[in-house]
Amino acid sequence: MKKSLIIALALVAGASLSTVDAAKKKKVVVKEEAPVVEAFKLATSSDSISYTAGMSSTIGLVNYLLQQKVDTAYMADFVNGFNETVSKNLDDPKQKAYLMGIQIAQQLVDRMLPGVKNELEGTPDSIVLNAFFKGFADALMQDTTFFKVNDAEKSFKAKMDAVHAEKEERMYGPNRDAGRKFLAENAKKDGVITLPSGLQYKVLTQGTGAVPTTSDKVKVHYEGRLIDGTVFDASRKHGDEPTEFRPTDVIKGWTEALTMMPVGSKWQVYIPFELAYGSRDAGQIKPYSALIFDIELVGIVDDKPAPAKSVKTKKKSKK
Asked: Structure pTM?
Protein backbone atom coordinates (compact mmCIF):
# COMPACT_ATOMS: atom_id res chain seq x y z
CA MET A 1 0.00 0.00 0.00
CA LYS A 2 2.74 2.39 0.95
CA LYS A 3 4.69 1.48 -2.12
CA SER A 4 1.63 2.04 -4.35
CA LEU A 5 1.17 5.52 -2.87
CA ILE A 6 4.78 6.49 -3.57
CA ILE A 7 4.45 5.31 -7.17
CA ALA A 8 1.22 7.28 -7.59
CA LEU A 9 2.84 10.45 -6.27
CA ALA A 10 5.77 9.94 -8.60
CA LEU A 11 3.43 9.61 -11.55
CA VAL A 12 1.58 12.82 -10.58
CA ALA A 13 4.86 14.71 -10.17
CA GLY A 14 6.10 13.43 -13.48
CA ALA A 15 2.92 14.51 -15.17
CA SER A 16 3.24 17.99 -13.65
CA LEU A 17 6.84 18.37 -14.80
CA SER A 18 5.87 17.22 -18.26
CA THR A 19 3.13 19.85 -18.37
CA VAL A 20 5.61 22.58 -17.28
CA ASP A 21 8.15 21.47 -19.86
CA ALA A 22 5.49 21.47 -22.52
CA ALA A 23 4.49 24.99 -21.55
CA LYS A 24 8.10 26.12 -21.72
CA LYS A 25 8.54 24.62 -25.14
CA LYS A 26 5.26 26.01 -26.40
CA LYS A 27 4.98 29.57 -25.09
CA VAL A 28 1.76 31.35 -25.70
CA VAL A 29 2.48 35.02 -26.52
CA VAL A 30 -0.44 37.29 -25.75
CA LYS A 31 -0.17 40.49 -27.74
CA GLU A 32 -1.38 43.63 -26.00
CA GLU A 33 -3.49 45.70 -28.28
CA ALA A 34 -2.42 49.37 -28.55
CA PRO A 35 -5.07 51.78 -27.33
CA VAL A 36 -7.07 53.23 -30.15
CA VAL A 37 -6.23 56.94 -30.51
CA GLU A 38 -8.92 58.84 -32.24
CA ALA A 39 -7.55 61.00 -35.05
CA PHE A 40 -7.71 64.70 -34.31
CA LYS A 41 -10.18 66.55 -36.50
CA LEU A 42 -11.21 70.14 -37.00
CA ALA A 43 -14.92 69.49 -37.00
CA THR A 44 -16.30 72.94 -36.28
CA SER A 45 -15.52 76.59 -36.87
CA SER A 46 -14.57 76.91 -33.19
CA ASP A 47 -12.12 74.03 -33.61
CA SER A 48 -10.46 75.84 -36.50
CA ILE A 49 -10.17 79.24 -34.84
CA SER A 50 -8.87 77.60 -31.64
CA TYR A 51 -6.28 75.59 -33.56
CA THR A 52 -5.03 78.57 -35.56
CA ALA A 53 -4.90 80.66 -32.36
CA GLY A 54 -2.72 77.98 -30.76
CA MET A 55 -0.37 77.83 -33.74
CA SER A 56 -0.15 81.65 -33.90
CA SER A 57 0.81 81.73 -30.22
CA THR A 58 4.09 79.98 -31.02
CA ILE A 59 5.39 82.82 -33.20
CA GLY A 60 8.69 83.98 -31.66
CA LEU A 61 8.67 81.14 -29.13
CA VAL A 62 11.63 79.28 -30.61
CA ASN A 63 13.82 82.40 -30.43
CA TYR A 64 12.69 82.92 -26.83
CA LEU A 65 13.57 79.32 -25.96
CA LEU A 66 17.01 79.77 -27.51
CA GLN A 67 17.51 82.91 -25.42
CA GLN A 68 16.58 80.85 -22.36
CA LYS A 69 19.32 78.32 -23.31
CA VAL A 70 16.79 75.61 -24.22
CA ASP A 71 18.17 73.11 -26.76
CA THR A 72 15.47 72.95 -29.44
CA ALA A 73 16.71 69.53 -30.49
CA TYR A 74 14.60 68.37 -27.51
CA MET A 75 11.41 70.06 -28.70
CA ALA A 76 9.46 66.80 -28.24
CA ASP A 77 10.37 66.90 -24.54
CA PHE A 78 9.25 70.51 -24.33
CA VAL A 79 5.91 69.54 -25.90
CA ASN A 80 5.57 66.61 -23.47
CA GLY A 81 6.05 68.99 -20.53
CA PHE A 82 3.58 71.42 -22.08
CA ASN A 83 0.94 68.72 -22.65
CA GLU A 84 1.38 67.30 -19.16
CA THR A 85 0.88 70.75 -17.64
CA VAL A 86 -2.17 71.82 -19.65
CA SER A 87 -3.83 68.44 -19.07
CA LYS A 88 -4.16 69.32 -15.39
CA ASN A 89 -6.59 71.67 -13.70
CA LEU A 90 -4.65 74.93 -13.77
CA ASP A 91 -7.23 76.62 -11.52
CA ASP A 92 -6.46 74.19 -8.69
CA PRO A 93 -4.50 76.16 -6.00
CA LYS A 94 -2.35 73.11 -5.28
CA GLN A 95 -1.49 72.77 -8.97
CA LYS A 96 -0.76 76.51 -9.27
CA ALA A 97 1.64 76.34 -6.31
CA TYR A 98 3.39 73.30 -7.82
CA LEU A 99 3.88 74.97 -11.19
CA MET A 100 5.12 78.18 -9.55
CA GLY A 101 7.69 76.11 -7.66
CA ILE A 102 9.01 74.84 -10.98
CA GLN A 103 9.24 78.38 -12.37
CA ILE A 104 11.02 79.78 -9.30
CA ALA A 105 13.46 76.87 -9.29
CA GLN A 106 14.37 77.66 -12.89
CA GLN A 107 14.85 81.35 -12.11
CA LEU A 108 17.10 80.54 -9.16
CA VAL A 109 19.25 78.24 -11.26
CA ASP A 110 19.45 80.59 -14.27
CA ARG A 111 19.70 84.00 -12.60
CA MET A 112 20.55 84.06 -8.91
CA LEU A 113 22.97 81.16 -8.55
CA PRO A 114 25.42 82.26 -11.28
CA GLY A 115 25.81 85.66 -9.58
CA VAL A 116 26.49 84.18 -6.14
CA LYS A 117 28.89 81.63 -7.61
CA ASN A 118 30.75 84.41 -9.40
CA GLU A 119 31.01 86.47 -6.17
CA LEU A 120 32.62 83.51 -4.38
CA GLU A 121 35.03 82.72 -7.21
CA GLY A 122 38.63 82.89 -6.03
CA THR A 123 37.66 82.49 -2.34
CA PRO A 124 37.95 79.37 -0.15
CA ASP A 125 34.14 78.97 -0.26
CA SER A 126 31.77 77.91 -3.01
CA ILE A 127 28.05 77.18 -3.39
CA VAL A 128 27.01 73.60 -2.55
CA LEU A 129 23.78 73.09 -4.49
CA ASN A 130 21.96 70.67 -2.18
CA ALA A 131 22.69 72.94 0.82
CA PHE A 132 21.47 76.01 -1.12
CA PHE A 133 18.23 74.30 -2.15
CA LYS A 134 17.72 72.88 1.36
CA GLY A 135 18.09 76.35 2.89
CA PHE A 136 15.64 77.78 0.35
CA ALA A 137 13.02 75.12 1.10
CA ASP A 138 13.53 75.26 4.89
CA ALA A 139 12.94 79.01 4.93
CA LEU A 140 9.62 78.60 3.12
CA MET A 141 8.58 75.74 5.42
CA GLN A 142 9.65 77.77 8.49
CA ASP A 143 12.15 75.12 9.55
CA THR A 144 14.58 76.87 11.95
CA THR A 145 16.73 73.83 12.77
CA PHE A 146 19.89 75.64 11.68
CA PHE A 147 18.97 79.34 11.29
CA LYS A 148 16.11 81.75 11.53
CA VAL A 149 15.59 83.52 8.21
CA ASN A 150 16.66 86.94 9.53
CA ASP A 151 19.78 85.47 11.12
CA ALA A 152 20.62 83.62 7.91
CA GLU A 153 20.25 86.84 5.92
CA LYS A 154 22.56 88.73 8.30
CA SER A 155 25.14 85.93 8.22
CA PHE A 156 25.08 85.71 4.42
CA LYS A 157 25.28 89.50 3.98
CA ALA A 158 28.21 89.77 6.40
CA LYS A 159 30.04 87.01 4.56
CA MET A 160 29.43 88.54 1.13
CA ASP A 161 30.46 92.01 2.35
CA ALA A 162 33.73 90.53 3.60
CA VAL A 163 34.24 88.65 0.32
CA HIS A 164 33.54 91.80 -1.71
CA ALA A 165 35.89 93.92 0.41
CA GLU A 166 38.67 91.33 0.18
CA LYS A 167 38.23 91.01 -3.59
CA GLU A 168 38.22 94.80 -4.09
CA GLU A 169 41.33 95.18 -1.96
CA ARG A 170 43.11 92.46 -3.89
CA MET A 171 42.07 93.78 -7.31
CA TYR A 172 42.03 97.57 -6.82
CA GLY A 173 43.96 98.31 -3.62
CA PRO A 174 47.19 98.95 -5.58
CA ASN A 175 45.31 101.37 -7.86
CA ARG A 176 43.92 103.29 -4.87
CA ASP A 177 47.35 103.44 -3.18
CA ALA A 178 49.02 104.63 -6.40
CA GLY A 179 46.50 107.48 -6.65
CA ARG A 180 47.03 108.55 -3.06
CA LYS A 181 50.81 108.50 -3.52
CA PHE A 182 50.52 110.57 -6.71
CA LEU A 183 48.34 113.22 -5.03
CA ALA A 184 50.64 113.42 -1.97
CA GLU A 185 53.66 114.09 -4.18
CA ASN A 186 51.70 116.39 -6.50
CA ALA A 187 50.66 118.58 -3.56
CA LYS A 188 54.31 119.54 -3.04
CA LYS A 189 54.74 120.94 -6.56
CA ASP A 190 54.84 124.68 -7.31
CA GLY A 191 51.49 126.22 -8.16
CA VAL A 192 49.39 123.28 -6.98
CA ILE A 193 46.65 124.25 -4.53
CA THR A 194 45.04 121.60 -2.31
CA LEU A 195 41.53 122.27 -1.00
CA PRO A 196 40.06 120.85 2.23
CA SER A 197 38.05 118.31 0.21
CA GLY A 198 41.25 116.84 -1.20
CA LEU A 199 40.74 118.40 -4.64
CA GLN A 200 43.91 119.86 -6.17
CA TYR A 201 44.23 122.36 -9.00
CA LYS A 202 46.82 124.42 -10.82
CA VAL A 203 45.91 127.61 -12.69
CA LEU A 204 47.24 127.50 -16.26
CA THR A 205 45.27 130.57 -17.46
CA GLN A 206 43.37 132.89 -15.13
CA GLY A 207 40.12 134.12 -16.65
CA THR A 208 38.36 137.37 -15.78
CA GLY A 209 34.74 136.43 -16.49
CA ALA A 210 31.87 135.44 -14.21
CA VAL A 211 32.09 132.44 -11.92
CA PRO A 212 29.26 129.95 -12.62
CA THR A 213 26.84 128.73 -9.98
CA THR A 214 25.53 125.18 -9.73
CA SER A 215 22.35 126.18 -11.59
CA ASP A 216 24.21 127.67 -14.57
CA LYS A 217 24.89 125.74 -17.76
CA VAL A 218 28.57 125.99 -18.74
CA LYS A 219 30.52 125.54 -21.98
CA VAL A 220 33.73 123.57 -21.44
CA HIS A 221 36.64 122.06 -23.33
CA TYR A 222 38.38 119.30 -21.40
CA GLU A 223 40.76 116.36 -21.54
CA GLY A 224 40.73 113.58 -18.92
CA ARG A 225 43.72 111.37 -18.08
CA LEU A 226 44.64 108.62 -15.67
CA ILE A 227 47.69 109.24 -13.50
CA ASP A 228 49.78 107.13 -15.90
CA GLY A 229 48.96 109.61 -18.69
CA THR A 230 46.32 107.51 -20.49
CA VAL A 231 43.72 109.82 -22.10
CA PHE A 232 40.26 108.31 -21.53
CA ASP A 233 38.11 111.18 -22.85
CA ALA A 234 38.29 114.66 -24.39
CA SER A 235 35.68 117.11 -25.60
CA ARG A 236 37.36 117.44 -28.99
CA LYS A 237 36.87 113.72 -29.55
CA HIS A 238 33.19 114.62 -29.91
CA GLY A 239 33.60 117.65 -32.19
CA ASP A 240 35.07 121.14 -32.17
CA GLU A 241 32.29 122.72 -30.13
CA PRO A 242 32.68 122.83 -26.33
CA THR A 243 30.55 120.49 -24.22
CA GLU A 244 27.57 121.99 -22.39
CA PHE A 245 26.23 120.82 -19.03
CA ARG A 246 25.47 122.01 -15.50
CA PRO A 247 28.09 121.63 -12.77
CA THR A 248 25.72 119.35 -10.85
CA ASP A 249 25.59 116.89 -13.75
CA VAL A 250 29.18 115.74 -13.33
CA ILE A 251 31.46 114.21 -10.67
CA LYS A 252 31.96 116.10 -7.40
CA GLY A 253 35.51 117.17 -8.24
CA TRP A 254 34.27 118.90 -11.39
CA THR A 255 31.38 120.57 -9.55
CA GLU A 256 33.74 122.05 -6.98
CA ALA A 257 36.27 123.24 -9.54
CA LEU A 258 33.78 124.76 -12.00
CA THR A 259 32.04 126.82 -9.32
CA MET A 260 35.39 128.45 -8.48
CA MET A 261 36.65 129.15 -12.02
CA PRO A 262 36.08 132.51 -13.74
CA VAL A 263 35.06 132.21 -17.40
CA GLY A 264 38.17 132.22 -19.61
CA SER A 265 40.18 130.15 -17.11
CA LYS A 266 42.06 126.98 -17.88
CA TRP A 267 42.95 124.80 -14.90
CA GLN A 268 44.63 121.48 -14.44
CA VAL A 269 42.55 119.66 -11.85
CA TYR A 270 43.66 116.61 -9.85
CA ILE A 271 40.75 114.63 -8.41
CA PRO A 272 40.97 111.95 -5.68
CA PHE A 273 38.79 108.88 -6.22
CA GLU A 274 36.37 110.00 -3.49
CA LEU A 275 35.45 113.02 -5.67
CA ALA A 276 35.52 111.04 -8.92
CA TYR A 277 33.96 107.62 -9.58
CA GLY A 278 34.75 106.04 -6.20
CA SER A 279 34.45 102.25 -6.23
CA ARG A 280 32.58 102.19 -9.56
CA ASP A 281 34.12 100.66 -12.65
CA ALA A 282 33.75 103.18 -15.50
CA GLY A 283 35.40 101.42 -18.42
CA GLN A 284 38.98 102.63 -18.69
CA ILE A 285 38.57 104.24 -15.27
CA LYS A 286 39.04 101.45 -12.75
CA PRO A 287 37.63 101.64 -9.21
CA TYR A 288 39.44 103.99 -6.82
CA SER A 289 41.19 105.89 -9.63
CA ALA A 290 42.58 109.39 -9.10
CA LEU A 291 42.04 111.48 -12.24
CA ILE A 292 43.63 114.48 -13.97
CA PHE A 293 41.63 116.94 -16.08
CA ASP A 294 42.62 119.94 -18.14
CA ILE A 295 39.49 122.11 -17.97
CA GLU A 296 38.90 125.26 -20.01
CA LEU A 297 35.77 127.20 -19.02
CA VAL A 298 34.70 128.77 -22.32
CA GLY A 299 31.51 130.44 -21.16
CA ILE A 300 28.17 130.35 -19.39
CA VAL A 301 25.06 129.60 -21.45
CA ASP A 302 22.24 132.06 -20.97
CA ASP A 303 19.44 129.49 -20.99
CA LYS A 304 17.48 130.70 -17.99
CA PRO A 305 13.93 131.77 -18.83
CA ALA A 306 13.28 135.50 -18.64
CA PRO A 307 11.16 136.53 -15.67
CA ALA A 308 7.51 137.02 -16.55
CA LYS A 309 6.53 140.65 -17.02
CA SER A 310 3.82 141.86 -14.69
CA VAL A 311 0.82 143.37 -16.40
CA LYS A 312 -0.27 146.65 -14.90
CA THR A 313 -3.90 147.50 -15.02
CA LYS A 314 -5.33 150.98 -14.71
CA LYS A 315 -7.55 151.53 -11.76
CA LYS A 316 -10.92 152.87 -12.58
CA SER A 317 -11.53 156.25 -11.09
CA LYS A 318 -14.47 156.57 -8.83
CA LYS A 319 -16.96 159.02 -9.97
From this structure: 0.64
